[in-house]
Amino acid sequence: DGRAKDKEGMKDRKKYDPGGKGYEIAGCFWWQGAKDCGNAAHSERYEQNLVRLIKHLRKDFKAPKAKFVCATLGHVKKSAGGNNGKVLEAQLAVDGRKGKYKEFKGNVASVYANPFCHGGSANSHYGGNAKTYMDVGLAMGEAMVELLKKGK
Question: What share of the chain is helix, strand, coil (3-state, %, to 5)?
Answer without folding.
Answer: 55, 10, 40
